[in-house]
UniProtKB/TrEMBL annotation:
Name this protein carries in UniProt: FAD-dependent monooxygenase
The keyword Signal belongs to this UniProt entry's keyword annotation: no
Lineage, broadest ranks: Bacteria, Pseudomonadati, Pseudomonadota, Alphaproteobacteria, Acetobacterales
Key word Oxidoreductase present: yes
Keywords for this protein: Monooxygenase, Oxidoreductase
Annotated SUPFAM superfamilies: FAD/NAD(P)-binding domain
Species this chain originates from: Roseomonas acroporae
One Pfam family it belongs to: FAD_binding_3
Gene3D superfamilies referenced in this protein's UniProt entry, alphabetically: 3.30.70.2450, FAD/NAD(P)-binding domain
Residue stretches spanning the membrane: none
GO molecular function: 3-(3-hydroxyphenyl)propionate hydroxylase activity; FAD binding
Length: 404
């Protein structure tokens, strides 16, 4: 092999965690990101207990926990009646989880943290404002033509990891199919500094509000500079355009329906985006590997996308490093593909699709039945623990590790 450097395309949380995990094992990495700086895209913001445990292995968890919001409790609500359907408290799993809570911490902050504190040497080289234009796979490595501030440059590496999102340039260059479907509606994310938790004590830091007409995900983050924000996710209507969805009138109407008040809401940001449920046909093609949204995308109900991607990154780094050192055969990377693809399909895809169906159920009888079952699970100690393990992605990690 001509060299051991790993090239990573995409400096989001998955790419940066993968780079840090490889760097910790003595593997030189170069990360290319076409954006000029970490993008404050305000999407993923929940780090589950299983992911926090992995970040703790890298020494990251202790730095970010004081700067996030600790959320042990999450609640399911019936918007029609205004009642809490069920509550789950991760604190009940304190006997088996190192971190029995979800940390509300926006993904762009995690990316910036790693770039600022660790990407400071030639062996951990992060290049923002660099777009990958050409990808060439060779017998003993990969070569990229990258367009940056100094013009086109060629970079060579032993392996290439694509963490460049759902529209991945790396995945497309490898010719890997992205199997699944796109939802007909878009999702609208709205953030407001208005304290919805104070206005409605039934709201925990994380809430899933079921409604046959317009369900809502509602959760709290610290926001920029520590200013608290409540982030709300709604579906668009059947005939609602993106422009209509983010218009001041529709944004105000959605927030007023969530919690009526006499004055208009202050809005920190608002965006509409398309949502897919897709998984790559394989996470490895020769010397090209995929992780995170490049490998799988899903709806955000349950906060599993970024977490699944970080778990990809840690699994991949744990296998790629020994391959580079000559301690393991390259076939170990096929096992990475099988393990993480299984986790994506059997857990993340299955759970997020089921979550959405429950939130938007229109049939009154089915809604009652699902709420009754959710109450039964919440009230049963063993059933609630099993439910929380799955929601916290503990089970997906355990089961994926058993895939040969």
């Amino acid at each position: 092999m001509r060299q051991s450097r790993v090239l990573i395309v995409g400096a989001g949380p998955v790419g940066m965690v993968c780079a840090l995990a490889l760097h910790r094992q003595g593997v030189p990495v170069t990360v290319f990101e076409q954006e000029a700086a970490p993008v404050k895209d305000q999407r993923a913001a929940s780090l589950h207990p299983s992911t926090l445990a992995l970040l703790d292995e890298l020494g990251v968890a202790e730095d970010i926990i004081p700067r996030g919001l600790i959320s042990a409790v999450y609640r399911f609500h019936d918007r029609v009646t205004g009642r809490v359907v069920a509550e789950f408290d991760l604190g009940r799993l304190a006997d088996e989880l190192e971190f029995p809570f979800v940390l509300q911490y926006e993904q762009y902050k995690l990316t910036a943290d790693i770039a600022r504190h660790y990407a400071t040497t030639p062996d951990f080289d992060v290049r923002f404002g660099h777009r990958v234009a050409v990808i060439e796979q060779e017998a003993d490595g990969v070569a990229l033509t990258v367009e940056g501030p100094d013009g086109p440059q060629r970079h060579a590496g032993a392996w290439l990891v694509g963490t460049d999102g759902g529209r991945s340039t790396v995945r497309r260059a490898a010719g890997i199919a992205f199997e699944g479907f796109t939802y007909p509606e878009r999702f609208v994310k709205i953030a407001t500094p208005f304290d919805l938790g104070a206005a409605n004590p039934d709201y925990a830091y994380r809430n899933y509000v079921s409604d046959p007409e317009e369900w809502c995900n509602l959760f709290k983050v610290r926001g920029e500079d520590g200013v608290p924000l409540w982030r709300c996710i709604f579906p668009t209507g059947p005939e609602e355009s993106e422009a209509e969805a983010v218009s001041p009138e529709r944004v105000e109407a959605r927030l007023q329906k969530l919690h009526p008040q006499a004055r208009r809401y202050e809005v920190a940001y608002c965006a509409a985006y398309g949502v897919n449920q897709r998984v790559a046909a394989t996470f490895r093609q020769g010397r090209i590997l995929l992780a995170g949204d490049s490998a799988h995308v899903n709806n955000p109900i349950g906060g599993m996308g970024m977490n699944g991607g970080i778990q990809d990154a840690m699994n991949l780094a744990g296998k790629l490093a020994p391959v580079l050192r000559g301690e393991a055969d390259e076939s170990l990377l096929d096992r990475y593909s099988r393990q993480r693809r299984h986790a994506a399909i059997a857990f993340v895809q299955a759970q997020t699709i089921a979550n959405k169906k429950m939130m938007e159920e229109r049939d009154p009888a089915l809604r009652r039945a699902r709420f009754d079952e959710l109450r039964r699970v919440a009230e049963d100690q063993d059933a609630s623990r099993a439910f929380m393990r799955r929601a916290a992605m503990v089970e997906s990690l355990r089961e994926a590790a058993l895939v040969d």
